[in-house]
Design a protein that fits this description.
Structural class: mainly alpha
Helix content: 40-55%
Number of helices: 14
Number of strands: 2
Strand content: under 5%
Largest sheet: 2 strands, antiparallel
Order of helices and strands: HHHHHHHHHHHEEHHH
Radius of gyration: 23 Å
Number of domains: 2
Shape: globular
């Protein structure tokens, strides 16, 4: 059996940071270490540790020693930027989640209040039974605290989708969209402005586009990002579940997506901004993201927008100038 790393006291943590070359404001550091924790903050000072040259680009391993000039204040500034960015993402994701519930609900309810139980309305490879079991589990857990669920349980034989939708989480909604027939997926995605010019795609890309709407993979990525935010995880330098960018690159306002696929934060932020301009016309969300990055990230020493996958001309692009 392996050994377990032993805990350190706050005084020991301060000494470790100083011994490794960090300039530490003691009163500030004590407050942060007591309120946030050494382990959580270590994810933010990791990029301030010296990276040997040459290094393995696929598995970079930084030294324990900090880059000369590194201060505890710089680390907390990065942490605060990430926290504020996470809050903005969570706010935008909430509106996307609610809108997707409404759009999918509108489509399904037009076919019947309980049409979500009809397997013929979904793809052959969609695990419809498993999804229904999960949805039923959500209902059972919500029955004691959700008045609508309790009301329908007491007075009706089943739950129409508009009642069920209120207890589904983003993962459930993402999976349900993934399972919809292509025409239904396309009707929803195009209502958000995702009108793809398929003639600009090569043969392989066309096959993928006509097999499944590309928004399905982006919603999968959004689910990972949403859960990261909900659990207060780092977002600024995180790699996400890859989503194909080929089809969306044919849309002018999304033409700054990386080629092939997107797994960095910039792609997610761009597609979110694109959706939110349709969901909430006149939204200030893209401006808030842009302002936060310019005022609290760009001034940070030793950090570049490449960490988040931003292109060099991002501030000149239409979605961020709105």
């Amino acid at each position: 059996m392996g050994t377990v790393k032993q805990p350190t006291t706050l005084d020991q943590q301060l000494e470790i940071l100083r011994s490794r070359g960090m300039d530490v404001d003691e009163s500030l550091a004590r407050q942060w270490l007591a309120s946030v924790s050494y382990y959580r903050l270590s994810g933010y000072w990791y990029t301030y540790r010296i990276l040997p040259i040459p290094d393995d680009p696929r598995q970079p391993k930084r030294l324990d020693i900090f880059i000369p000039g590194t201060t505890f204040t710089q680390v907390t500034a990065l942490y605060e930027f990430d926290r504020k960015l996470r809050t903005l993402i969570h706010d935008g994701m909430e509106r996307i989640e609610v809108a997707m519930r409404a759009r999918i609900g509108e489509l399904l309810v037009a076919k019947g209040a309980l049409s979500y139980k009809d397997a013929s309305l979904f793809r052959d490879d969609f695990d419809h039974e498993s999804w229904l079991r999960t949805a039923q589990g959500r209902v059972e857990r919500a029955r004691k605290r959700n008045h609508a669920i309790a009301h329908y349980a007491a007075n009706y034989d089943d739950y129409p989708f508009w009642v069920l939708a209120d207890v589904l989480d983003f993962l459930d909604i993402s999976q349900l969209y993934d399972g919809l027939l292509l025409d239904d997926q396309r009707a929803i995605s195009e209502s958000y402005g995702f009108t793809v010019d398929a003639e600009r795609l090569n043969a392989k890309q066309k096959r993928a586009y006509y097999r499944q709407d590309p928004l399905a993979r982006w919603l999968e990525q959004f689910t990972v990002l949403r859960n990261t935010c909900a659990h207060h995880g780092r977002v600024w330098n995180r790699y996400l579940t890859p989503a194909s960018s080929n089809a969306f690159l044919t849309i002018e306002k999304l033409s700054s997506l990386p080629r092939g696929q997107s797994d960095r934060l910039y792609g997610a932020l761009l597609v979110m901004a694109f959706m939110l301009t349709t969901i909430s016309p006149g939204t200030s969300w893209p401006h808030k993201v842009c302002h936060l990055i310019k005022t609290e990230y760009l001034p940070l020493r030793g950090h570049t927008l490449e960490e988040m996958g931003f292109p060099s001309n991002w501030q000149d692009l239409p979605l961020w100038r709105s």
